[in-house]
Structure to design on (244 residues):
C-alpha cells in the first residue's frame, strides 16, 4: 500500500512538520564523533537537514525516488536504497536515525544492517511523533483519525503512533526526554498535512475522499486565525557496544 504514499514527496516536503533543534543537539551529544550520520527512510529529507549543522557528512536514504527528488538542495547526500541494504562500508557510521519510517521496514534485517555499518559506540535512534491535537479543537482530529479513517489505516500505524514500544535491541538504551513538536498553522496548512496521511492515500486508491467533508467541518470550527498544533515526540535509542 505504500506505493501511492511514497510518490507524494512534494506534499511531504511542504506539509510535514520538522523536528526541534533540541532533538538534533541531543543526537549529536550522544554520537561518538561528528563525522557521518545516516537518515534511513529519509523521505524528502526533513530530519537529514536537521543533522547537517552537527555532522561533517549526512546521508539520507529512501526507497522512493520521488521522495528523494522532492528534497531541496542541501549539504546532505541522498541515495536510493533499501533500509536493510545500505551502500556503506562496515563500521563507518557514527549515528543512524529513522524518523517516522521504522514501521515500514523489515525490522530484523534492518537491525542486522545497523550492526554492520555502525562504529563501536555508534548510536541508533528511532524517532516518531504521535497523533497531533489542535489547541481549542481538542478531540476533533482523533475522531477523524479513528472514525472515517479507521478502516484505511495500515496495521503499522499503531506502532508509530505509540512510539515503537516493541522495538528491542540487545544494546544499552539511551534516554531522550519526550517533548512536543509545536507549529502555528492556518487551517489550510493543517489540511495539507492531513493529506499526507497514509490512510488517505489508501482511501484515494479505492475512490474514496473522506478528507473533503472533514475539511469543511474543520474550516468552520478553526476560524481565520492560526492555531497551535501539537505532536508528542518520542525517541527510542541504543548505543552499539564498544569504544566511544
Amino acid at each position: 500500500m505504500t506505493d501511492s504514499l511514497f510518490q507524494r514527496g512534494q506534499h511531504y516536503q511542504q506539509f510535514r512538520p520538522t523536528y526541534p533543534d533540541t532533538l538534533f543537539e541531543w543526537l549529536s551529544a550522544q554520537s561518538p564523533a561528528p563525522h557521518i550520520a545516516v537518515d534511513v527512510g529519509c523521505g524528502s529529507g526533513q530530519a537529514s537537514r536537521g543533522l547537517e549543522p552537527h555532522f561533517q557528512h549526512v546521508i539520507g536514504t529512501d526507497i522512493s525516488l520521488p521522495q528523494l527528488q522532492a528534497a531541496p538542495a542541501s549539504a546532505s547526500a541522498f541515495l536510493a536504497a533499501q533500509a536493510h541494504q545500505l551502500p556503506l562500508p562496515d563500521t563507518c557510521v557514527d549515528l543512524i536515525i529513522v524518523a517516522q519510517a521504522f514501521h515500514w521496514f523489515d525490522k530484523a534485517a534492518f537491525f542486522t544492517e545497523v550492526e554492520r555499518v555502525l562504529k563501536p559506540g555508534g548510536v541508533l535512534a528511532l524517532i516518531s511523533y504521535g497523533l497531533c491535537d489542535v489547541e481549542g479543537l481538542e478531540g476533533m482530529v482523533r475522531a477523524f483519525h479513528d472514525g472515517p479513517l479507521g478502516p484505511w489505516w495500515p496495521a503499522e500505524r499503531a506502532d508509530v503512533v505509540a512510539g515503537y514500544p516493541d522495538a528491542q535491541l540487545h544494546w544499552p538504551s539511551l534516554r531522550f526526554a519526550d517533548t512536543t513538536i509545536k507549529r502555528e498553522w492556518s487551517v489550510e496548512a493543517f489540511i495539507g498535512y492531513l493529506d499526507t496521511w497514509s490512510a488517505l492515500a489508501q482511501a484515494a486508491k479505492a475512490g474514496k475522499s473522506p478528507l473533503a467533508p472533514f475539511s469543511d467541518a474543520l474550516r468552520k470550527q478553526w476560524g481565520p486565525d492560526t492555531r497551535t498544533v501539537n505532536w508528542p515526540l518520542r525517541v527510542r535509542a541504543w548505543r552499539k557496544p564498544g569504544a566511544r
Observations:
- The beta strands are 36-40, 57-62, 77-80, 93-99, 118-129, 133-134, 173-174, 179-185, 227-239.
